[in-house]
Design a protein that fits this description.
There is one protein chain. The chain is mainly beta. The protein has two helices and 31 strands. Strands 1-3-28-27-26-25 form a six-stranded antiparallel beta sheet, with no helix packed on it. Strands 2-4-31-30-29 form a five-stranded mixed beta sheet, with no helix packed on it. A four-stranded antiparallel beta sheet has the order 5-6-7-8, with no helix packed on it. β14 and β15 form a beta hairpin. The radius of gyration is 21 Å and the shape is globular. The N and C termini lie far apart (50 Å). InterPro entries: Apc4-like_WD40_dom, WD40/YVTN_repeat-like_dom_sf, WD40_repeat_dom_sf, WD40_rpt.
């Protein structure tokens, strides 16, 4: 079903008032995204562009009881000194710690390549480490003088390919930069700094999505706008944002922390952030075409399942933190109950195959594998000393279904198959 472009929901009570809008900007937010708006890149200052109504009560099925397994994860490629953490990571159910990557710096984001052969890890110091999924070895470190000097975090990563089928990695930075890396050459093949025409102060770039064709990319950031780029020309094609009308809320008012193209619709995408809305967009329209009020998105926690045509949203809050919505109607389909082990404020969530959901975050510092039908937790990783900011699921290859979850300066690789081949240490 196509988007109905004329269907705009009115602004929620209070959001149309400009005074209340300024108050909303004081919304509580997670520490890892509370960067000063004055943070800027140290590159040349010249901006350069190269070449919600109906709710379904959650199922109250009891949580599944399973045998607890305490594991001492293996480190690779080389063992490092004990970090001194007193908390021992644990798993239960059929989830197992396959191995652990020690990255030497706090990890902000991670992403498997489309073929499942690589795992890219974005760090707080602005560098990117790329690991072989097969061997677990560090294959490349991606950084340049500018990212080293700015020393601001990598905020999102997405793999793509060039016209010559070269493996490329798009990365966004809190410095306001977007960079495209040729992985095997450790080369930044193009970059740009994000700012609107006539403005010299660039924004913090916080989120990224690539269209189904691979020809376009979206970025969201601290200025509440969404930018659309042509990946062939590296030029910005469109800026999406609210109209400013007081009678409708047709765009974001606060930071855009997640953007996601519809997996099967080149011209449609959704976005979420601090203003407690999911906005629906059509690339042929400057303003959003409709919205859902509710989710407080603070990470990579907004995804569309093309088979069921449903949206999974994760919110950084104690209650109603994980919800499923119908894409076409915007109605809530279900609400996932919190785990009995503790409440989680969600930073990251994903569809996991056709039957499961993955969700993780802070407070309980836990990752859960949730049955999509019963909404019960089947297995989990817990006992971590710090929050899980990011996660990724290996999409294909011999490691399909392997889960990467970041916590502190480590990436946990998790398997639900006890017979998966171990990495050679």
């Amino acid at each position: 079903m196509a988007l109905e472009l004329s269907n705009r929901f009115p602004a929620p009570p209070g959001l149309a008032d400009e005074g209340l809008q300024r108050t909303k900007r004081q919304v509580q937010h997670p520490d890892h995204l509370s960067l000063s708006d004055s943070d800027t890149d140290t590159e040349d200052d010249d901006v350069r562009e190269t070449g919600s109504d109906s709710e379904t009560e959650p199922n109250e099925a009891p949580q599944m009881q399973s045998r607890l397994s305490v594991q001492a994860p293996a480190h690779f490629p080389a063992k490092k000194e004990d970090s001194g953490d007193q908390t021992q990571p644990k798993t239960d159910g059929d989830l197992h710690i396959h191995s652990v990557l020690e990255c030497g710096c706090e990890v902000m984001t991670c992403q498997f390549s489309n073929d499942g052969s690589l795992l890219a890890v974005g760090l707080c110091d602005g560098s990117i480490k790329v690991y072989s999924t097969d061997s677990g070895e560090l294959t490349q470190t991606l950084k340049d003088s500018s990212s080293v000097l700015s020393a601001l975090p990598v905020t999102s990563l997405r793999f793509t390919q060039s016209g010559q089928s070269h493996c490329l990695l798009l990365a966004t930075y809190a410095s306001g930069s977007v960079r495209c890396w040729y992985i095997w050459g450790q080369q930044c093949v193009w970059w740009l700094k994000e700012a609107r025409d006539g403005e010299r102060m660039q924004r913090q770039t916080l989120s990224l999505s690539i269209s189904p064709s691979g020809h376009q990319a979206l970025t969201g950031g601290s200025d509440s706008f969404i930018y659309l780029y042509d990946l062939a020309t590296h030029q910005r094609r469109q800026i999406f944002g609210a109209s400013g009308m007081k009678t409708v809320m047709d765009g974001h008012w606060l930071r855009v922390i997640a953007v996601s193209f519809h997996p099967e619709k080149e011209t449609q995408f959704i976005s979420g952030g601090w203003d407690n809305t999911i906005q629906f967009w059509d690339t042929r329209q400057q303003h959003s075409v409709r919205m859902i009020s509710g989710p407080h998105v603070c990470g990579d926690a907004l995804h569309i399942d093309p088979l069921a045509n449903q949206i999974l949203s994760g919110s950084w809050r104690k209650h109603n933190s994980l919800e499923v919505w119908d894409y076409d109607s915007g109605k809530k389909v279900s609400e996932v109950p919190q785990d009995t082990h503790g409440d989680s404020k969600i930073y990251t969530c994903h569809w996991f195959g056709q039957d499961h959901i993955i969700a993780a975050g802070t407070q309980a510092n836990m990752l859960r594998v949730i049955d999509r039908r019963s909404l019960t937790t089947e297995s989990k990783l817990f006992g971590l000393p710090s929050a899980i900011f990011s996660s990724s699921v290996c999409p294909s290859g011999q490691w399909a279904g392997l889960i990467a979850a970041t916590s502190g300066d480590r990436v946990f690789l998790l398997s639900r198959n006890q017979h998966v081949k171990k990495h050679h240490l």
